[in-house]
Amino acid sequence: MKNHAFLIWAHNQPLLLKNLVQRLSVPNHHFFIHIDKRARLDPFVKELEGLSNVEFFESRYAVNWGSNYQVWATLDLLKHAFEKNIFGYYHLISGVDGFCSTNQIFDSFFEKIRARGSFFCRKIDWSKSQKLVELLNAIC
Predict the structure, then answer these.
(1) Which end of the chain has the least Cβ crowding within 10 Å, N or C?
(2) Poorest-confidence range of 1-5, 28-32, 65-69?
């Protein structure tokens, strides 16, 4: 069974984030969490204390929806998870999203699709992401 990386943006509602992570928590699910720089980190860390496979980012951005900071936060989450080189799937979600399935059905869905060859993954050349950041800086 492949590992799943959940890349999560959050800025409020630490209890909802905890509920989401608890619902998704199984050994092959890992959580990489970016908390908006304008939010206090402590409540989120406290709520998720003791849950496994959870990492909070030290580098934080003040994210506005659709801003270049949202792109940077996403790239940081993806790069960090990708560097671990253990994930077959990457899911970008919000800390206030809901999960309305079971982990067994969720994992089974992705395993069936993988078996049919419908999905693929390729290595990412992260040196190109710096060019994207420079471009975003130039136009924002």
Answers:
(1) C
(2) 65-69
Show Cβ contacts of residue 51 under 8 Å, excluding neighbours closer than 6 positions.
Answer: 18, 21, 22, 25, 31
Residues 118, 124, 128, 132, CA torsion sign: positive
Residue 50 and residue 34: Cα distance in Å, rounded? Answer: 18
Cα–Cα distance, 98 to 16 (Å, whole number): 9
Write out the two tokens for 63.
């994210």
| Count of CB atoms situated within 10 Å of the CB of 52 | 11
Contacts for 17 with CB less than 8 Å, ≥ 6 apart: 8, 10, 33, 44, 47, 48, 95, 96
Kindly give the residue spans of alpha helices, DSSP state H, lying in 7-126. Answer: 14-24, 42-48, 68-84, 103-116
